[in-house]
Amino acid sequence: MPDLWQDAMDHAVTLARKAGKIVRDALQNDMKIMCKSSSVDLVTKTDQNVEQLIITSVKEKFPEHSFIGEESVAAGEPCVLTENPTWIVDPVDGTTNFVHGYPFVAISIGFAVNKTLEFGVVYSCIEDKMYTARKGKGAFCNGQPLQVSDQKEINQSIIATEFGSNRDPDAVDKIFSSMRKILCLPVHGIRGAGSAAINMCLVASGCVEAYYEIGIHCWDVAAGAVIVSEAGGVLMDVEGGPMDLMSRRVLAANNNTIGERIVNEIEAFSADRDDAP
Ligand code: LIP
Question: What are phi and psi of 272, to 5 degrees?
């Protein structure tokens, strides 16, 4: 049976590659940095241009599809996931890295139909790694199949997380406290690439056993979620139970044993939902 969404996925890969070149070229030039919700929530002209390129091309090729994009939402567009085929896009995931030339920056394109994620494309454009996954068909990096780690012992694991852009002292205390508890389990280490999408691809690749964060957005993790689950991993909320794409909380793990062990240590808090009215 023909795959209804393969054409869209192929187009997402082409767009991600094109966008990656724009990002790499922009690193050679002076960039104009602006702030969004706070002085540590950054955006550049490149984020906006790349998102525009992707929207324009998607609208031309798939005029009936919907779109949720980080910069469009920042500009006031609604962030609502409907049943309609929807592209969920972060044009530059790891904008702070990009601004500082820290070499982990990704273009993240997720695609959902009937609120179910169908494919994910994450292009780590400085490393030139193209991660792809189609529901039911496995996950790949530059065409090579991905498989999560088979580790079940938390004290043999590496956990990825981020500080994010929340500087509310109570939230920061909880973030540190969770990290302290996890570090002292003990685990082999805590890491963070500075890009949610890349962190999720690292789980899918078997380099880290789990990644969790509170404060991310749906566009940071939609593509990565498909890549993790197609590589054999699991997704959950930071307090356990199913992951809710709009909740701004995510825990991706190689298996339930590691995921649930991490859940026990996280001091959870809530962030305003992406789809809050
Ligand atoms: C960023 C994430 C990062 C997270 C930041 C932010 P952006 O996305 O990928 O992991 O810690 O809070 O959401 O803003 O660079 O697209």
Answer: -60, 130
Residue ranges lining ligand 1, Cβ < 6 Å: 70, 90, 93-95, 162, 164-165, 195-196, 213, 215-216, 220
Task: Read off the pLDDT of residues 80-137 as tens digits, 9 standing for 90 and up.
Answer: 999 999 999 999 999 999 999 999 999 999 999 999 999 999 999 999 999 999 999 9
Give the DSSP H or E segment for 33: strand 33-35
Tokens of 109: 């394109």
Query: Is the same domain home to 113 and 179?
Result: no
Record the tokens describing residue 269, joined without a space: 């808090």
Looking at the domain assignment, is residue 52 inside a domain?
yes
Quick one: 223 and 257 in the same domain?
yes
Residue 31 lies in a domain: yes
Domain count for the chain, please give it. Answer: 2
Here the ipTM equals 0.94
Structure confidence at residue 175 (pLDDT): 98
Task: Give the residue, by CA position, lying nearest to ligand 1 atom 11.
Answer: 164
Domain check: are 128 and 162 in the same one? Answer: no
Extract the tokens encoding 245: 């794409």
Distance 197 CA to ligand 1 centre (A): 9
Q: What number does the ligand 1 atom closest to the CA of 192 have?
A: 10
| CA–CA separation, 197 and 96 (whole Å) | 14
Counting from 1 in the atom list of ligand 1, the atom nearest the Cα of 70 is: 16
Q: In terms of residue numbers, what domain contains 99?
A: 6-145
Task: Report if residue 274 sits inside a domain.
Answer: no
